[in-house]
Description:
Layout: E1 11-15, E2 28-35, E3 38-43, E4 47-52, H1 53-59, E5 72-75, E6 79-88, E7 98-101, E8 104-107, H2 110-117, E9 125-134, H3 138-144, E10 148-152, H4 155-159, H5 166-172
Amino acid sequence: MEAFPAFLKGYFLMAMPALMDPNFFQSVTCITEHTEEGAVGIIVNRVHEGLIAKLIFEELGMDTDGRADDLPIHIGGPVHANELFVLHGPPLDWGQSLIIGQELALSNSREILEAIAKGRGPGSYIIALGCAGWAPGQLEWELSQNAWLVSPCNQDIIFNTPMDQRWERAIQQMGIDPQSLTHTAGHA
């Protein structure tokens, strides 16, 4: 079994079946930052029912070309639930983007939202309201309790896999059959 690094920036967290918190049940979270001070991520497999990009653009007073109007808005997590975040591929620099890896960044500037509204944004992206957050040591404790599986982020899963298949696909990329996971945690 491959060991993961002490800090998980650029990794997926896949909720184990026993994690019953409704915010994270069968979630796939892309960790965008992880330090001794805590961790932040964006859930990539949940959307707000009926909330589309056009409504966000209208509320922000942005003109659109219509190409992104019907995109769903993701539920990025329960923290900062009124803030917009864009998890995206290249180009990566949109104001004060947080670079996650060579092909992935997190931005929340008006500049990137205006570019998306006008069809000039990054090639791949998701728009999310809110994010997931962990206090210092909290994520490490949850990992020790077998709440999460960990694997490198996969852009194909984030941007191209159907929403209802992302959890299973993220686990399958580890060589694990999601159906074989048990609801009971164990420690070796």
